Write the structure tokens for this entry.
Amino acid sequence: MPETWTAVDDHITGLLLPADPALDAAQEAARAAGLPPISVSAAQGKFLHLLARIHGARRILEIGTLAGYSTIWLARALPDDGRLITLEFDPKHAEIARANIARAGVAGKVDIRVGRAIDALPALGPEGPFDLIFIDADKPSTIDYFRWALKLSRRGTVIVVDNVVREGKLVNPAGDQSAEAMHGFMAWLASETRVTATALQTVGAKGYDGFVVALVESPEV
Ligand code: SAH
Ligand code: DHB
Ligand code: MG
């Protein structure tokens, strides 16, 4: 089946995602620098972009920049006065991302904060509330990031969490640290009354995974 998923993703990409010099150059720069090939796929990046536009997002927070691929998709969804803050631990990733984001012409809207996300999040209050938050960094910290996302939200904020399915290991995560983290996160989410959430499984060029989409009903406990 993975061959079919990739073939269908290629088909979709061929039809709906024409070559995009800035995004293609971003992926090539990431590859050339030896960064892991773990960005969202083109179709997923466009989904995030559409979600941000459908929602009319003006302030976006991203946790986990890598080479800025998802960042560029999201930043392009913003109006001229919109703003995106993206948190990245690895200075090398941030440097590649900075060049990619500049090449894409969205540097004026994007602020890359280098360091551990957990250290940056407590200072983001004055920059919020955010309209859309994309959590896509170290998986064991997902619950902590989601708790911070709630603090930085308003009623109506959309929170997306990447990589919750992990090739199905979500249901049998033994021994896989990321999958165990997502199993715990999903159980925690189920009892979180401040959001209405679902999770969607995805297949395609990035294998078999999935994401959570949550709508903040009330940011107060
Ligand atoms: N959102 C990107 C992919 C992010 S990959 C895209 O789809 O294009 C995950 C990123 O999170 C990596 O660049 C990794 O360095 C970063 N990361 C890992 N631990 C982190 C931490 N504690 N704080 C901030 N970023 C972290
Ligand atoms: C990994 C991280 C990601 O954000 C992703 O989309 C895929 C894989 C990882 O750490 O393995
Ligand atoms: Mg991811």
Observations:
- The radius of gyration is 17 Å.
- The chain has one domain: 2-216.
- DSSP finds eight helices and seven strands in the chain.
